Amino acid sequence: MKAENPWRTLSTRLVYENPWITVREDEVIDPGGQPGIYGVIHYKNLALGVIPIDAEGYTYLVGQYRYPLGLYSWEIPEGGGAITKDPLSEIQRELLEETGLTALNWKLLLRMHLSNSVSDETALLYLAWNLQQAAARPDSNEALEQLRLPLAEAIEWVHAGKITDSLSVAGLLYVESLLHRKALILPSKCSDIELSF
Is the CB of residue 112 less than 8 Å from the CB of residue 170? Predict the structure, then answer.
């Protein structure tokens, strides 16, 4: 397993910047020894997502229109978290904003790199349970719809292609694998979730 970097960076220039991303273009020597360019998108926030599970074994999805795709998307509660802040407190804020939910119990499930051929975006995915309902507080630029459905049905939506968001797909399929391996047990009262990972 090679960990050595086969790329050589000759120069870097900033192409574009806004409050969320920067885009740079590097002149490089590629692993085959040829000169070329490489465009890299740097994300200024972490991508954070959560799969909340209530006492009846239901989860919550958030629906919104995704501008870059020109599509309506059903997703787990997710958003950007400041890299300089505690990721758990940032996803707790997102869950409250998008669904009005708070949770007594949290577990980090996955750390992922999204679109790693062109970006350095890092994602953290959590499981939350022992939920309490409050009022949702979406950002002024968000038009969100909320849906509560059985966890098994949300997983089926992934298999049916109704959920295509990468954090949601990865998270729900990971939870499905934990259930299959019995590393996550949802008793009849899901406030007593058992984890063995």
Answer: yes
Q: Per the structure block, which two tokens stand in for 143?
A: 């038009």
Q: What is the CB-side half-sphere exposure of residue 59 using CA atoms within 13 A?
A: 26
Give tens-digit pLDDT for 3-39.
899 999 999 999 999 999 999 999 999 999 999 999 9
Helix residue spans in 112-164 (DSSP H): 151-159
Q: Which 3 state secondary structure label does DSSP give 121?
A: coil
Give the global pTM. Answer: 0.91
Q: Which residues of 45-73 are buried (b: 16+ CB within 10 A; e: fewer)?
A: bbbbbbbbbbeebbbbbbeeeeeeeeeeb
User: What is the second-level CATH architecture of the domain 45-108+124-195?
Assistant: Alpha-Beta Complex (3.90)
Give the 3-state secondary structure percentages of the chain, helix then strand then coil, rounded to 5: 20, 45, 35
Strand 45-53 vs strand 122-133: parallel, antiparallel, or unpaired? parallel
Helix, coil or strand: residue 3: coil
